Amino acid sequence: MRRFFAISLTASVIYFLSWAFVYSIGVNKLAVQSEDTVPAIFLPISIISRGDLYLDNYYSTMLGSYPHPDDKSYTRNMVPFYLRKVDTHYVSAFPIITPILAVPVYLLPVLLNLPMIWGNLIILSHVAAALIVGFSGGFMYLLLKKHFETSNYHALLITAIYLFGTINYALLSQALWQHGTLQLFLIIGLYFYLNYLKDSRSSHMLFTGLFFGLAFLSRPTGGLPIILIVTHFLFTYRANLKKLVKPGILFLIGLLLVAGFFFWYNAKFYRDISNQGYSSQLTTNWLGGFPESFFGVWFSPSKGILAYSPVFVFSLIGLYLGLRRRDSKSDLYLIFGITVFLHTLIISFWKHWYGGWSFGYRMSSDVIPFLILLLVPFVQSDHFTKYKKVFYVIAGLSVYIQLLGIVFFDGIWHAAYDKGFTDTSWLWSLKDSELVFNVRRVMVKLGLLAKACAQCLPQK
């Protein structure tokens, strides 16, 4: 457990200091990455100080700083997209689990009556986000060590890639997004599920259901892994009722505990499920331009999984190697591969499959844990020994890309090139891609493109 805490806290400190450094010296003055995360910044205060989910006291502050960004006809009397009005109260349009996780970070400052001004809230939200993703890395390490027979070196290597070679570093650890919380609970849920497969203790399935349920409550896309893990469970124990019935009931109890919490706070604060932010989107936002969008999810120069974390090329190789092994883990690797494929397929039909104004493959970040686990068969194979240098170079490139996000993700690229979801040609430009644009910015700052500086800036 000492190493678990060392990994979790070290990653959290690196996350926070990375932002604090570039922010304090004025290189990147973006304090809040997206309006999507604004309610989560204020909700912990309401939970601690009044024990409710209402954002009434902060409505004017939010509206003044972050009005609705997508509607040019927006007026001050309209409720921004990230809130819902229920009777006379304002509530978050997004799931509330992430701000609940942030409560311990806010607790002492709120109880000590520290002024809840923007400057303080920015720091508190960054600390909370860093801790959420940092501890997910700690649990990833435990999962790898206990259930995937990895050496300590391989477990640390894969965990480092999870923490710093994916958009967990540049995006999810830098704001109170839903995705980091989803990953945390998926990893913990998978840990308990594999505990059950290992020692058949039924109580593990209670925690499996509880944490998978919390993952789903954190973000609806968490439902897909639940379906596939249940399928794996039923298939594995289809001929053994003793290992199927009682653990299955405990798994359902875990899910029902989470469902009970959802129905309680929905009835008390939201009144009706139609006031939940995703309720209307589920029937109206399937506007992605498939199949272009599916290929974009993977290969777009400005949003693709393999463009921002090229190390995941080895995950695809790992899937192939894992299925060839035909051992006790082969079925799990198959489940991981199916999860990744179905998630990216479903997301490709979504209106903002590319993640809107965000860095990298945000909408596909929910399956980062499964892509990471698919690295295991590769690093355990002879291919890793043979191509180790290539692997390190590509893993290092993935980290470098995330560092570019830390330094340069400030909305300038989106403001210059983003044409929205109806015309996605901007997502396929190599010359004007976000990554190339950021590299040009580095070269300008180093004076390497000083004479051609005008060419490095967005052309209107």
From TrEMBL:
Coiled coil: none annotated. The chain crosses the membrane at residues 6-25, 90-111, 117-144, 151-170, 176-194, 206-235, 247-266, 278-299, 305-323, 332-353, 359-378, 390-409. InterPro entries: RgtA/B/C-like. Keywords: Membrane, Transmembrane, Transmembrane helix. Signal peptide: none annotated. Residues 127-264 form the Glycosyltransferase RgtA/B/C/D-like domain. This is Glycosyltransferase RgtA/B/C/D-like domain-containing protein. It comes from candidate division WWE3 bacterium RIFOXYD1_FULL_39_9.
